[in-house]
Amino acid sequence: MKKQEREEKLLQSVQELGAEIIDSERFRAAEAIPHHLAGNVAQHSLNVARESCRIAEWLNRHGAKVDVKDAVRGSLLHDIGMTEKEVFRSPSWKKAYSHPDRGAKLAREEYRANDVQEDAVRRHMWPICLIPPKHAAGWIVSAADKICSIKEILHR
Ligand SMILES: [Fe+2]
Ligand SMILES: [Fe+2]
After folding, report:
1. Which residues surround ligand 2, an ion (CB under 5 A)?
2. Residue pair 116/126 in contact by the 8 Å Cβ criterion
3. Ligand 1 center to 120 CA (angstroms)
4. Cis peptide leading into 127, omega within 30 of 0?
5. 3-state class (DSSP) for residue 120
6. Residues near 127 by Cβ (< 8 Å), separated by ≥ 6?
7. CA 118 to CA 108: how far, in whole Å?
8. Minimum-distance ligand to the CA of 122?
9. How far is the CA of 116 from the centre of ligand 1 (A)?
10. Domain boundaries, the chain
11. Cβ atoms within 10 A of the Cβ of 114, count?
12. Ligand nearest 151 Cα, by number?
C-alpha cells in the first residue's frame, strides 16, 4: 500500500472510531483554541489520533491486543480540558497540570469515556505529571502526543 493510501486509511479509521467526538460542539469549539504547536487544539488532537491509530495497528500486527478505538478516542479527548475557559485562560505552566484532570472529567461526563479512555486523558502528560498511564492505549496516547508535538514544532 502506498504511503498516501495508508494515511487516508488511518484518517478514515479515526473519523469512524471518533465520529461522536469529532462531530461534537465542544470539539468543534476546540478549533478556535490556539495550540502553541499545531495551530489549534482540534487539529492537534486529530494529529495525535492518527498517530495513535498508526502505533496501535502496528502493535496489533505484531501480536499485541490494543483496542484501537480506546487509543483513538483517548487521543481525540486528551486535550479536551483546554476547552474550559479557566483552563485556556491560565498561564501555560498551570495549564499543563490542570488540563488532564479537567479533560478526564469532561471525557467521562460528556463523551461516556470508559476507564481506559479516561485514564489515557488523565495521564497523558506523564512524566511532567508523575503518575503514568495504566493501560496500553494510554501509553500510546502519551507517546503519540509527544511524537506529534515534535513533528508540529518541526513543521511550524
Ligand atoms: Fe496535553
Ligand atoms: Fe496534546
Report:
1. 79, 145
2. no
3. 11
4. yes
5. helix
6. none
7. 6
8. 1
9. 17
10. 3-154
11. 17
12. 2
Is the model's pLDDT at 126 over the cut of 80? yes
Strands (E) in 52-152, as ranges, are none
Average pLDDT over the chain, rounded to whole? Answer: 95
CA of 123 to the centre of ligand 2 (A): 11
What number of residues does the chain have? 156
User: Using one digit for the tens of pLDDT, what is the confidence trace for 79-122?
Assistant: 999 999 999 889 988 999 999 999 999 999 999 999 999 999 99
Is pTM beyond 0.85 here? Answer: yes
Per-residue H/E/C for 82-108: HHCHHHHCCCHHHHHHHHHHHHHHHHH
CA of 63 to the centre of ligand 2 (A): 27
Q: How far is the CA of 24 from the centre of ligand 1 (A)?
A: 19
Question: What is the C-alpha separation between 153 and 86, in angstroms, rounded?
Answer: 26
Handedness of CA 129, 127, 95, 145 (dihedral sign): negative
Q: What is the assigned CATH class of domain 3-154?
A: mainly alpha
Q: How distant is the alpha carbon of residue 138 from its chain centre?
A: 10
Query: Counting beta carbons within 10 angstroms of the beta carbon of residue 24, is it exposed (0 to 12), middle (13 to 18) or buried (19 or more)?
Result: middle
